[in-house]
Amino acid sequence: MAVAKIRLYVEHPLGEGQSVPLTREQAHYLFGVMRLRAGDAVLLFNGQAGEWRADVVEAGKRGGLLRADEQTRPQDMPPDLWLVFAPIKKARTDFIVEKAAEMGARRICPVQTDFTNAERIRRDRLQAHAIEAAEQCGGSFVPEVAELQRLDAFLSAWPGERQLMFCDEALAGGSSALSGGLASAPTGAPWAILIGPEGGFSEAERTRLAGMPQAHAVRLGPRILRADTAAVAAMTMWQQALGDWR
Amino acid sequence: MAVAKIRLYVEHPLGEGQSVPLTREQAHYLFGVMRLRAGDAVLLFNGQAGEWRADVVEAGKRGGLLRADEQTRPQDMPPDLWLVFAPIKKARTDFIVEKAAEMGARRICPVQTDFTNAERIRRDRLQAHAIEAAEQCGGSFVPEVAELQRLDAFLSAWPGERQLMFCDEALAGGSSALSGGLASAPTGAPWAILIGPEGGFSEAERTRLAGMPQAHAVRLGPRILRADTAAVAAMTMWQQALGDWR
């Protein structure tokens, strides 16, 4: 049997003997770029049914057909962690979405804050980044990228039991140690990490966050971190303390 | 007195009343881009003398003069941590250097590994990224970017007392927890973090690293991380356990 090296996300049911037709883009990637041929194998996942080995049955320029063969990994399910962040620049926004998928966020929520100018996002493009990161990182789960929302509306609809790790650059500097907010947090609860925008939160936002019983302020060291760095650092801290890096 | 918002790295002594001439690039940035005028204030650091408030004495298109006024922060010195990594793609290499400066590495060491193709780096360009990150993150220290070296030569010259946190994607997957290598590590020792290249270490490299008494293998969660993600995650873990995030 051919060894499968390529991992591909498909929006199609997966199971033993299941036929999986390819889109034009997928066929171009597999047969044009990666030079696969009939009889070669790939690994497939759809975000729900684990990872499956599949053989190439038909390889064409504009399409093709795979047949799933055997399950190679059960479905992964990362911890119930949302990453909430304020998109600013395109490259760093792309980066944050990629990193959220690699680090095991279950949902990615872009928000508009008082000091954020982003009026819109390309949700489909960000979702494609999340898919590519999932293909790369060996997982079988793809976090969903939510529509852009106003932070105040998002907090108004906050699910009561979800805990919130709140990283604010105003907490950087000074000499205080980590707040220890995570150590005292309930285990097994759903969580979200909120990364402040590079311009910081407004006073109104800061007051509102500080008043939420679910909020746990965490300080990310003595230096001011860019939002993309803060996202990876905060997810590392959370995964180590409460998630699947324990 | 004018409020200083801009932070600028200068290669010049700093002290009370010290005159600081500007390069053409610095003058362009301060007066052309940021529209500063005589009498405005900036914050200066040179990596050794802390942060100083300075006034603009002369503002020209091709140069200018600042005068340091008072020290606003003492010199920072991050923990004695080296970040050692194998550069591959330009954008991700730039990113790793930026993140190393933000996360508080003291020295940045690019290495060639058996599976790394990078034949050369632009050391001056990478150093400029480290300076820009230091200007941004509010610190007064700039890590030095070392010349590219072969990993085997680098390990042959390894300073005996320096501990090595060794992150290998071959350790990803499976179900084992974090190795706990950091918990048992000597405190107060100099350290380095070595990030595996995206193609992984060769067997020879892995064997050599495993045989070093200073090496502490650490697993970065169940997903495979890109090298840039791994660099930020590993520095977060180290800073929390042994560095200045404690």
Automatic annotation (TrEMBL), chains A, B:
Q: Which UniProt keywords apply?
A: Cytoplasm, Methyltransferase, rRNA processing, S-adenosyl-L-methionine, Transferase
Q: What is its EC number?
A: 2.1.1.193
Q: What is its main location?
A: cytoplasm
Q: What class of enzyme is it?
A: transferase
Query: SUPFAM superfamilies, from UniProt?
Result: alpha/beta knot, PUA domain-like
The source's domain of life comes to Bacteria
Tell me the Gene Ontology biological-process terms attached to this UniProt entry.
rRNA base methylation
What cellular component GO annotations does this protein have? cytoplasm
Q: Where is the Ribosomal RNA small subunit methyltransferase E methyltransferase domain?
A: 78-239
Subcellular location per the Swiss-Prot or TrEMBL entry = Cytoplasm
Q: Has the keyword Hydrolase been applied to this entry?
A: no
What are the residue boundaries of the Ribosomal RNA small subunit methyltransferase E PUA-like domain, all occurrences included? Answer: 22-63
Give the Gene Ontology MF terms in alphabetical order: rRNA (uridine-N3-)-methyltransferase activity
Which catalytic reaction applies to this protein?
A: uridine(1498) in 16S rRNA + S-adenosyl-L-methionine = N(3)-methyluridine(1498) in 16S rRNA + S-adenosyl-L-homocysteine + H(+)
> Which protein family is it in?
Belongs to the RNA methyltransferase RsmE family.
Task: Summarize the protein's role.
Answer: Specifically methylates the N3 position of the uracil ring of uridine 1498 (m3U1498) in 16S rRNA. Acts on the fully assembled 30S ribosomal subunit.
Q: What protein am I looking at?
A: Ribosomal RNA small subunit methyltransferase E
